[in-house]
């Protein structure tokens, strides 16, 4: 009987240790997820800025294009 009680106690202690490790791992995972969710908006603008393409060179105006503003009063 004493041997049975000792084995039961040993199994209970080991089982309790595993439950504590699982609880700590779950709490750590929850904390990391919450921190990541809270910190994501802080890093998103810099990530978007890094993804943007460089500005294209300015468009050239063809030689035949009218570059001066129109003056319709003069025509009328």
Explain the layout of strands and helices.
Elements: H1 2-51, H2 72-75
What does this structure look like?
The chain is mainly α and 76 residues long. The protein has a domain at 1-42. The chain is built from 2 helices and no strands. It has helices at residues 2-51, 72-75. The chain is rod-shaped and about 115 Å long.
Q: What would you call the shape?
A: rod-shaped
- Helical content stands at over 70%
Let me know the average pLDDT: 81
Q: How many whole angstroms does the radius of gyration measure? A: 36 Å
By oligomeric state, this entry counts as single chain
**Tally the helices: what do you get?**
2
**Proportion of strand residues:** under 5%
Question: What key attributes describe this structure?
Answer:
76 residues; mainly alpha; 2 helices
Short note summarizing the structure:
With 76 residues, this protein is mainly alpha-helical. Helix content is 71%, strand content 0%.
């Amino acid at each position: 009987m004493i041997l049975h009680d000792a084995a039961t106690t040993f199994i209970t202690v080991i089982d309790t240790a595993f439950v504590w490790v699982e609880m700590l791992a779950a709490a750590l995972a929850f904390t990391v997820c919450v921190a990541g969710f809270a910190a994501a908006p802080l890093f998103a603008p810099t990530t978007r800025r890094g993804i943007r393409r460089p500005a294209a060179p300015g468009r050239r105006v063809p030689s035949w294009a009218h570059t001066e503003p129109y003056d319709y009063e003069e025509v009328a």
